[in-house]
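re the bet — no i am not wrong, look at it urself. input seq straight from the record:
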Amino acid sequence: MPVFKPVKVGKDGKSKGVPVFARKDPTGNPVYQEREAAEKRRKKDAKRAGKSIKRMKKAAKG
């Protein structure tokens, strides 16, 4: 499993190369995994909120 290793910055202030995890499959990167999980949670929450709004509107009508 690749480990997150930040890019080293040279004396001129520019980064030297690409992070190790970026060159490999991103599924082994813990930062990437957390970002994906958070996005999935947000989508689920939005769907749940939409359903509850529909239910509330329906209850208010009838």
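see?? Residues 30-61 form the longest helix (32 residues). told u. also DSSP finds two helices and two strands in the chain. so pay up
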